Amino acid sequence: MRPGFGTCNVEARTAEPATRTRKDRLRKRVLATRMSLDRGPVKTAGQAILARVLSLEAYSRAKLVHTYVSSKENEVDTRALIGACLAHGKRVAVPVVMPGTKTLAHALIDGLDQLVVGPYGLAQPDPAVATWLPAEAQIDLVVVPGLAFDRRGQRIGWGGGYYDRFLAQVQAVKIGLCYNALVLNYIPDEPHDVPVDIVVAETAIYQEAVFKIPNGPSSGPSRARTSPRAPTRGGNPPGAAGHK
Q1: What pLDDT tens digit does each residue of the chain (244 aa) get?
Q2: What domains, with CATH codes, occur in the chain?
Q3: Strand residues in the chain grouped as ranges (E)
């Protein structure tokens, strides 16, 4: 055994539970903060966040946008964003929680009227009739949910790990939507956590200095490519464990 090898393992094993405990405590605090926000300012802030998202070059370039559907109280609204995407001729995909699994499937929608109430009270397409996103489709932009974000792009979610598994497999610009009151200086992160590239709040946009939205015509988020296979409707979703 190499000197120090056993000690390092012990430190690694104890560090992760400690970080998880800190995140669990922080999750309770930020959830309480979000629930305490007044509905009027929340609506105004959501409109300002939407305007900032629509001004991003990453949004302008995107042909296929994947976004959560706002369903929880005081969650940053994405329904207006979905409407804007469709009005701008973009394809929209949304997550679908499949019962009995810990993974997300992904379905295309062309209107909010295709949504029903799914697991955990989340709005999503009915899996029985959903138009599944082909596994080979290229997502350009992912709008990621979170209770809070920090300026590095780390986030506090609900703790289920659904989005970390999904984001680890998708090559796209990742955006977190967050109220000013819930943009934190620091959120402890674990090895499996996947940060977003950009955090959009009502009065500011935060992005890591190392992340640049390219300006060249051949760079930047990959454009959605025409799939050689038509989207499937209903039945088992392709690539339910994640997405390319």
Answers
A1: 333 323 333 333 344 677 778 888 999 999 999 999 999 999 999 999 999 999 999 999 999 999 999 999 999 999 999 999 999 999 999 999 987 777 889 999 999 999 999 988 899 999 999 999 998 999 999 999 999 999 999 999 887 778 988 999 999 999 999 999 999 999 988 888 899 999 999 999 998 743 444 333 333 333 333 233 345 566 666 654 445 4
A2: 11-233 (3.40.50.10420)
A3: 64-67, 91-97, 104-109, 115-117, 123-125, 131-132, 141-144, 148-150, 155-156, 173-177, 183-184, 198-200, 205-207, 232-233
